[in-house]
């Protein structure tokens, strides 16, 4: 099993996981956002990871007694593949199997001596089993508490987070973004430091209006950071802007004029005219638009209602652009 370490990027709200083989050699194996961590916590709660870990634990206790480990190795490899997409399950598996390997190594070394001394071998085996049982219980209890916290949208308290004799507060206060936290033997750092960052960053859980998934943020933005959800938010904003402009008689009048002259230009571009002709029309189009915009602004700023005089002026500008269209078309198309 790999020696797994992680560090947290506060600004990007990401956790980077590394496989470390020496103090100077580390390999990035995973990067997860805070939202990814929440999804994996939910997946752990609803999946059968704990049941499968229990099955591996039961097999370990049996194989320790029989002094065989082929089945343990085979099941661990199988679970490594099954747990690959859930970092919590992967770390729990790594810690449990790492503990088993260490205890088995002790058993193999001390068992040689114990086999010549009556009762020693049995005592060693019981001690080894106690160590594995203790580690499995520790993992189970910590994950149950963490899942309980996740099920309550991570509404935790400082006392609940920092209950490890200040051990992880000390590391947080160093504020070293490059610090690597080991989860090779204990899952506590992953759970408590992650929760600490949520608490100190004042991050809360909200539900995305588009995809329906939960996300972390300081306030309810309505949409999570997934690209499809950001596009949905942009469409919704544009829809609201259009509705607001439509409800405003002045803006609606300007928008209708703008649409008319854009349609005239679009028709002109379909006639394969030269760029100079199109540019000439474009200049006049922009000039007319600005004139109409200024005239409407005078009415809007003074609170004057739209009247026949304003509408007649806009019709004149439309007719001017229509005549320009016809003239350019007749002159430039043989």
What would your notes on this structure say?
The protein is α+β, with helices and mostly antiparallel strands. The chain folds into two domains: 198 residues, no CATH class; 85 residues. It contains twelve helices and six strands. The strands form two sheets. The protein has a four-stranded antiparallel β-sheet with strand order 3-2-1-4. A two-stranded antiparallel sheet has the order 5-6. Helix 10 runs antiparallel to helix 11 and helix 11 packs antiparallel against helix 12. It starts with a strand and ends with a helix. About 3% of the residues have low confidence.
Write the layout of secondary structure elements.
Layout: E1 4-9, E2 14-22, E3 25-33, H1 34-46, H2 49-66, H3 70-82, H4 87-114, H5 120-151, H6 158-161, H7 167-173, E4 181-182, H8 188-200, E5 204-207, E6 214-217, H9 227-247, H10 249-269, H11 275-302, H12 308-332
Antiparallel strand pairs: 1-2, 1-4, 2-3, 5-6
Helix pairs in contact: 1-5, 2-3, 2-4, 2-5, 4-5, 10-11, 10-12, 11-12
Question: What labels describe this entry?
Answer:
334 residues; 2 domains; 67% helix
Beta-strand content: 5-15%
> Are there runs of 5+ residues with pLDDT below 50, and where?
164-174
Distinct helical segment count? 12
Shape: elongated
Total number of strands: 6
The total number of structural domains is 2
What's the story with the biggest beta sheet?
4 strands, antiparallel
Mean pLDDT level:
84
What is the succession of H and E elements?
Answer: EEEHHHHHHHEHEEHHHH
Instruction: Report the end-to-end length measured between terminal Cα atoms.
Output: 81 Å
Q: How helical, in percent, are the residues?
A: 55-70%
Radius of gyration computed on alpha carbons: 34 Å
Question: Which sequence of strands runs across the widest sheet?
Answer: 3-2-1-4
What structural class is derived from the secondary structure elements?
alpha+beta
């Amino acid at each position: 099993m790999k020696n797994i370490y992680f560090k947290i990027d506060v600004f990007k709200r990401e956790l980077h996981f590394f496989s470390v083989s020496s103090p100077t050699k580390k390999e990035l194996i995973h990067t997860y956002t805070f939202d990814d961590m929440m999804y994996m916590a939910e997946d752990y709660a609803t999946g059968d990871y704990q049941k499968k870990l229990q099955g591996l634990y039961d097999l370990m206790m049996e194989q320790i007694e029989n002094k065989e480990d082929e089945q343990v190795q085979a099941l661990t490899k199988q679970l490594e593949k099954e747990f690959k997409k859930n970092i919590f399950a992967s770390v729990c598996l790594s810690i449990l199997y790492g503990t088993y390997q260490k205890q088995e190594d002790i058993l193999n070394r001390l068992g040689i001596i114990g086999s010549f001394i009556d009762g020693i071998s049995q005592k060693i085996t019981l001690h080894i089993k106690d160590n594995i049982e203790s580690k499995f219980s520790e993992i189970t209890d910590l994950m149950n508490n963490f899942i309980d916290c996740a099920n309550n949208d991570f509404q935790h308290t400082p006392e609940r987070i920092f209950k490890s004799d200040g051990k992880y507060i000390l590391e947080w206060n160093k504020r070293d973004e490059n610090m690597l936290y080991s989860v090779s033997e204990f899952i506590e750092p992953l759970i408590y430091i992650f929760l600490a960052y949520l608490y100190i960053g004042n991050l809360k859980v909200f539900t995305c209006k588009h995809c329906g998934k939960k996300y972390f943020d300081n306030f309810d933005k309505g949409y999570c950071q997934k690209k499809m959800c950001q596009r949905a938010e942009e469409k919704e904003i544009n829809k609201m802007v259009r509705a607001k402009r439509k409800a405003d008689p002045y803006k609606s009048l300007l928008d209708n004029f703008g649409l008319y002259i854009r349609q005239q230009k679009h028709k002109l571009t379909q006639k394969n005219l030269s760029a100079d002709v199109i540019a000439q029309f474009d200049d006049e189009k922009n000039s007319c638009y600005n004139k109409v915009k200024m005239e409407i602004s005078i009415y809007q700023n003074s609170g004057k209602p739209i009247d026949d005089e304003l509408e007649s002026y806009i019709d004149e500008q439309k007719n001017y652009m229509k005549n320009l269209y016809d003239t350019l078309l007749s002159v430039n198309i043989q």
